[in-house]
Amino acid sequence: MVSGFTNREITMMCDKQQKVTTDLKNGTWTFDEALLQFNRYCVIKNLREKTIKDYQEAYGRFVSFLQQYTVLSVVGELTKRHVEDYIIHLKGTGMKDTSVNTCLRGIRVILNFLSEQEACIRIKVPMQKTDKMIKETYLAILDITKKWTGTPHNWMSTANQLMIYFEGRIVNDDLIV
After folding, report:
1. What pLDDT digit, counting tens, does each position of 132-146 carry?
2. How many domains would you assign to the chain?
3. Do the domain assignments include residue 125?
4. 123 in a structural domain
5. Which of 134, 142, 169, 176 is the 20 to 30 Å CA partner of 98?
6. 117: which DSSP letter?
7. How far apart are CA 49 and CA 40, in angstroms?
């Protein structure tokens, strides 16, 4: 089972790096070795601990799925089909598309790293289409704010009335648009 590593453990592992014998070109990293290398990369990139933890959790869930439903032993054997099966598995658990996408983003980052290291083939991780209602609401709010950028109708008359009503508390400079 893949476990998460703390920054201290990663530092200790980096010191022992000479002892780790892996063959990057042939994709023979085990899933644990892949996580070790990815964690090392995260430390070098100075990522936040929460970000690293989120990646570790996403990877842990993915590897747990692979261990339960496949006989893979090294990351070099990963294919697009495995990722697609994982997406089907996530959707089958009743997760919303946005939650599935959150899991997939973490997997995508790790798989991209592994392919850059030539530990596995390049696998495109497809994101799920989400409910368009949120996007439409956001665009409607943007449209409203565009319409409200101009000077309100009869503003000078309103500004004069406010200066009379709040005499001494509002000055003319406060009301100029």
Report:
1. 666 666 667 777 666
2. 2
3. no
4. no
5. 142
6. T
7. 12
